[in-house]
Amino acid sequence: MDAHRRPLIDRTPALLAEGYAWLPNRMRDSNGSVLRTRLLGRPALAVRGPEAVRFFYDESHVRRHGAVPAPVLDTLFGQGAVHTLDGDAHRTRKELFLPLLEADPVARLTDHVTTAWDEAVRSWSERDRVVLFDEAAVVLTRGVRDWAGLPPRSFDAEPLALDLVAMVDGFATPGPRHLRARRARARQETRMARLVEEVGSGDLVAPADSVLERVARHRDPAEGPLDSRTAAVELLNVLRPTVAVSWFVAFAAHALHRWPAHRERLRGGDAEFATAFAHEVRRFYPFAPFLGGRTVTGLTWHGESVPAGGILLLDVYGQNHDEELWGDPYAFRPERLLDRPPGRDELIPQGGGDPAAGHRCPGERVTVGLLEALAVRLARLEYTVPEQDLRIPLRRIPTRPRSGFAVTGDALPDRASAHPSTTRQATTRTGPVG
């Protein structure tokens, strides 16, 4: 029987078992940059590479409406979110976010977050042990809460951080983590919807041109003002991905522990190196395994086909570790991104294409800006890394160092005049990614 006519076995169980390695392993076995498979009961085509990124983001090929599984909507994105829209509806809704993600607003958000970080660091010396993932989540929540215009008295940072982390942590797995994510989203959507209603009724005045004020007054041309629940969803779609940067902060700490030579250039204030370091953290460490959409029509890519109504997958983790693109991709080497800044559709940890017109995450600039600032601050801290489990399991989506990266010691901000050699090095070996 012709290989293209053989029934495809559904690989969803293998995805759940193998995590990030599932698609790259299958792509490697196929000896190419395309793979026919079956996922979630549908025929699927997986692609990789800059040319494939452009193919994937062509709206005549793929639609998002109906493509995101309900469990992901009920945890990560929310029902009716911008991620589920196509065409003009998507572009119009995205205009809600784009002005907030220009250079000046991002700089203000970074200022809020770094102020919260510096305040938190001053208290760490009083504690026996600090878990950086958990602390970063609270710091990021406090910063984005204040920047977005949420009233601090009504939204305490620690419980809000727990819920925002839960939404990300449980979107891709069955079981207790998923149930926590669902409960967290339901709880926060209710609270955010009530907040939007208070702004709409005049009971609460939102700061001018804040995220809260923009969401409360946004109008979709076809639908009119957002209902309070959809507005709550989109408000969370600013808060949640900002707090998700805590994953990258933990990865940055992991990288500085394994390759401490990078610490000196970060401590010295080399801005170009800080950017390259942030990009290399996003490239090297696993976050999104792949992206998917529903095929509008039958598609063929490099000789492999998928029918209309099937699934097109973009192999994000595999592309970020593609030897042809990166050369020695499993080496952590920020210098590679100084030598040759990546093209738009080469480095895709948060998707590819044009963020203004397409589905690439418009918050990518936020992620990079925050990671640059916090990586420098991590490099300037004095701390010891005690014995702990620093392995990063690829079967877990989203993954992170198992211990969350705990530190002990003074954890005080390094003074500008201090020599880099004053930073105490770790007392334990770091386990490999895997």
SSE diagram, text form:
Layout: H1 12-18, H2 22-29, E1 34-39, E2 42-47, H3 50-56, E3 62-63, H4 70-77, H5 87-94, H6 103-124, E4 130-131, H7 132-148, H8 157-169, H9 176-201, H10 211-217, E5 219-220, E6 224-225, H11 228-243, H12 245-258, H13 262-267, H14 271-284, E7 291-295, E8 299-301, E9 304-306, E10 311-314, H15 316-319, H16 323-326, H17 336-339, H18 364-379, E11 406-407
Parallel strand pairs: 2-10
Antiparallel strand pairs: 1-2, 3-7, 4-11, 5-6, 7-10, 8-9
Helix pairs in contact: 4-9, 6-7, 6-18, 7-8, 7-11, 7-12, 8-9, 8-11, 9-10, 9-11, 10-11, 12-14, 12-18, 14-18
Keywords: Heme, Iron, Metal-binding, Monooxygenase, Oxidoreductase
InterPro entries: Cyt_P450, Cyt_P450_E_grp-I, Cyt_P450_sf
Pfam families: p450 (PF00067)
Q: Topology as H/E string?
A: HHEEHEHHHEHHHHEEHHHHEEEEHHHHE
The number of helical runs is 18
User: What is the helix content?
Assistant: 40-55%
Q: What is the second-level CATH architecture?
A: Orthogonal Bundle
What is the name of the CATH class?
Answer: Mainly Alpha
Main structural class:
alpha+beta
Average pLDDT: 88
Shape: globular
Strand order of the largest sheet: 1-2-10-7-3
Largest sheet: 5 strands, mixed
Per CATH, what is the topology? Cytochrome p450
Structure summary, number of beta strands: 11
CATH superfamily: Cytochrome P450
Q: What Rg is obtained from the alpha carbons, in whole angstroms?
A: 22 Å
Strand content: 5-15%
User: Uncertain runs with pLDDT below 50, 5 residues or more?
Assistant: 414-434
Please indicate the count of domains: 1
From the N-terminal CA to the C-terminal CA, the straight-line distance is 38 Å
Keywords: Heme, Iron, Metal-binding, Monooxygenase, Oxidoreductase
Region (Disordered): 404-434
Biased composition (Polar residues): 419-434
Cofactor: heme
